[in-house]
Amino acid sequence: MTDGSLAKAYIEAEQGDSIYCLFNPSELSISKSAQWTSPPSPGQNVPKLKFNQGQPGTMSLNLTFDTTDTGDPVTVSTNKLLALLSVQQGLKDTDSQNNSCRPPFVIFHWGRFHSFKAIVEKLDVKFTYFAQDGTPLRAKANLSMKQYEEEDAWGPQNPTSGTLRPHAVHTVAPGETIDRIAAVRYGDPNRWRLIADANGVRDPIELMPGTTLLIPSVVAGRRG
Predict the structure, then answer these.
(1) Which of 99, 132, 150 lies at the terminal end of a domain, its last residue?
(2) CA distance 126 to 187
(3) Quick check: helix, strand or coil at residue 181?
(4) pTM of the complete model
(5) Cα separation of 82 and 77, whole Å?
(6) Quick one: 105 and 177 in the same domain?
(7) Residue 180 in domain
């Protein structure tokens, strides 16, 4: 943010108000896997793997909610999270007459980071502080989310060129350079600037080990 203020994370729901985080998460984990099969290969030391299908990406994060300054019950926030696991009427591709309703999908936003479209698969809420009358004032919420659909389902946002969408997090290892990371992630070291621009890296030579980088993916341009 250009004014120097701290970007606040929030969860955008398909339906209803967004849920803003009083405290930004200290950790955020993203996982993506692919399924490969190993066909019989008599006489071979290593069989040639055959790609079967991709698996939905998953993301997990821990959030803290605190209302000790106002005295209001913290359940005002946690109930909004719980609602993300409840069936809601009127969502796209739902039909209440055929009992095919579903909970809403969500997108997690934090500054320039935007997650894939996901559903809340699991939510654990732990209340850790209470008022004298038993009103819960502080809670920790652990969210587990699973990718709802393929990233390209968003469609291009720029009608004339590809659009960058952060989709992964990379922690810089000792000895790694930004062009080497680009070579691994994109197969092309010359695409290092995509990572630099997405993370505001001004001097790629001084990239410190342990730095967390958002890795953008290139969404194809206009479809014919």
Answers:
(1) 150
(2) 43
(3) helix
(4) 0.62
(5) 9
(6) no
(7) yes
